[in-house]
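Lecture notes, part 5. Sequence design as translation. It can be helpful to think of inverse folding as translation between two languages: the language of shapes and the language of residues. The source text, in structure tokens, appears below.
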């Protein structure tokens, strides 16, 4: 992979993290004690591996609700990231 493509992949990951963080904060805005952890990994060897994990702790919302919301947000934002990757000539392998 060229350095330009790898840089594009890194930038797409950064945007993904920012979007997920913003949406989680918006979704759970009624909980000032909300704690969110986003962990991301980008493997730079072929095949390129991208992992993202989101955890949230809340005193207001129950864990099942949190899990459902996080899954929805990740599904939607990963779809957007996939479109971005197509724009730089990459595709997601399942």
């Amino acid at each position: 992979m060229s350095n330009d493509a790898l840089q594009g992949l890194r930038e797409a990951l950064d945007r993904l993290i920012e979007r997920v963080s913003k949406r989680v904060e918006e979704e759970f805005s009624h909980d000032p004690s909300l704690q969110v952890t986003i962990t991301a990994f980008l493997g730079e060897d072929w095949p390129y591996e991208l992992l993202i994990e989101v955890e949230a702790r809340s005193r207001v919302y129950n864990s099942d609700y949190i899990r459902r919301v996080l899954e929805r947000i990740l599904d939607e934002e990963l779809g957007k990231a996939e479109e971005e990757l197509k724009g730089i000539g990459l595709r997601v392998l399942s």
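The translated text above is only one of many valid answers, since several sequences can fold into similar shapes. The chain has one domain: 3-87.
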